[in-house]
Predict the 3D structure of the following.
Amino acid sequence: MPNCPKCGNKESLPTRTFSVIVEPSKGERGMTERRVGMYTCSSCGTKFPTVISKQRYLVVAEEQLKSIQDELATVKKGNDELSAKVRGMADQQRELQQSMDRAAKENEVSNLRTKLEQLESFVKHLRKEKSELEEKVSRI
Ligand SMILES: [Zn+2]
């Protein structure tokens, strides 16, 4: 929202808009289209213009534009292929993670089995000791 240059009042809507094409100044390339809004201050009545937006246009030879567009299409194709590869890799990673989880579970099961076997042999040992003790006690 531009301010009135005389009283500083803010104006939100232009009374009219138009475009002007500005020739390039020295050292610049291309044309600039300026969208200008004419405002009338609702407080003091001053009319003032403000540039609303600017659009630069470069003059490019048709062949050059075509080659830029072709290059862009090639880059886009390469980018699409790369995206597909990345997706494929993400899938593979997920599968790998799943088989790692499975392997971890299998490993856990086998650890538990080993522990169970150890416990069973310990129980066997204790039973043997118990019966030996009972035998000793019975002899007393
Ligand atoms: Zn004003």
